[in-house]
């Protein structure tokens, strides 16, 4: 079975590309401590013009959609309290914001966070937000299908470049809860 690494000509260890990553992501990789060795995290340089999944998959191959994941920031609201959380689902699914996310956050209402909130809160670029390097205290919800994927193509924190990470490593990130049904077929 092909992995995301098969789609790219130049795949390098992410730890050797820290200067190409936004600071929160670079810091997380520098301080990596999961059971998956940091050398298993890979970086690929990609054109920022094709950072969006649909364009990236059209360029590199439709098979990649099954091994790519999108990270979106949601805002759960209860009373006057707002909780920001990141949700990571396979690219061919969508986040179940009004069901799984709302219940997991204990919110009365949940919605996608506004772009300026997502960017400002994460320290990352819109279209490149990744669960690696998010602020301490943010819940990170990972669909079980992502955690079960041997290697997943995800954002790198910026629109240029992507990370290829074992699903197991994503399931071990700080603040992660792995959930069945977080991603539903679009």
From TrEMBL:
GO MF, one example: aminoacyl-tRNA deacylase activity
Protein origin, superkingdom: Bacteria
All copies of domain YbaK/aminoacyl-tRNA synthetase-associated, residue ranges: 48-171
Coiled coil regions, renumbered to chain: none
The name this protein goes by in its record: YbaK/aminoacyl-tRNA synthetase-associated domain-containing protein
Top-level taxonomy: Bacteria, Bacillati, Actinomycetota, Actinomycetes, Kitasatosporales
């Amino acid at each position: 079975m092909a992995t995301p690494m098969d789609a790219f000509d130049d795949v390098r260890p992410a730890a050797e590309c820290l200067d190409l990553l936004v600071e929160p992501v670079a810091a997380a990789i520098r301080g990596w401590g999961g059971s998956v060795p940091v050398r298993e995290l890979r970086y690929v340089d990609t054109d920022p013009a094709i950072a969006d999944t649909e364009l990236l998959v059209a360029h590199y191959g439709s098979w990649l959609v099954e091994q790519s994941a999108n990270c979106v920031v949601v805002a759960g609201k209860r009373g006057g309290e707002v909780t920001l959380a990141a949700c990571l689902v396979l690219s061919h699914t969508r986040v179940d914001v009004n069901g799984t996310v709302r219940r997991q956050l204990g919110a009365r209402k949940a919605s996608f966070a506004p772009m300026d909130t997502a960017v400002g809160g994460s320290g990352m670029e819109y279209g490149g937000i990744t669960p690696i390097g998010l602020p301490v205290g943010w819940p990170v919800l990972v669909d079980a299908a992502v955690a079960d994927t041997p290697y997943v193509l995800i954002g790198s924190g910026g629109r240029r470049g992507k990370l290829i990470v074992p699903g197991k490593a994503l399931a071990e990130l700080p603040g992660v809860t792995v959930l069945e049904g977080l991603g539903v077929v679009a």
